[in-house]
Design a protein that fits this description.
59 residues, DUF4083 domain-containing protein, 1 helix, transmembrane helix, transmembrane, single chain, DUF4083, membrane
Length: 59
C-alpha cells in the first residue's frame, strides 16, 4: 500500500463520516423545531396575558 492509497482511504472515511453527521444534525434539527415552536407559542400567550393585565392596571 502506498501513500496515495492511505490518503484516499482517509479522505473517504472523513467524507462518509461527514455524510452521517449531516444527516444526524438535519434529523435532530427537524425534530427539535416542533417543541421550540410550542415553547414560542406558550411564551407569546404569557406575554399577551401580561400586556392585557398591564393595560387593565392603566385603566
Amino acid at each position: 500500500m502506498n501513500f496515495g492509497d492511505v490518503v484516499f482511504q482517509l479522505l473517504m472515511f472523513i467524507f462518509m463520516f461527514g455524510i452521517f453527521a449531516v444527516v444526524f444534525f438535519l434529523v435532530r434539527s427537524l425534530l427539535s423545531k416542533n417543541p421550540q415552536s410550542q415553547k414560542d407559542n406558550e411564551i407569546e400567550k404569557k406575554l399577551d396575558r401580561i400586556i392585557e393585565l398591564l393595560e387593565q392596571d392603566k385603566k
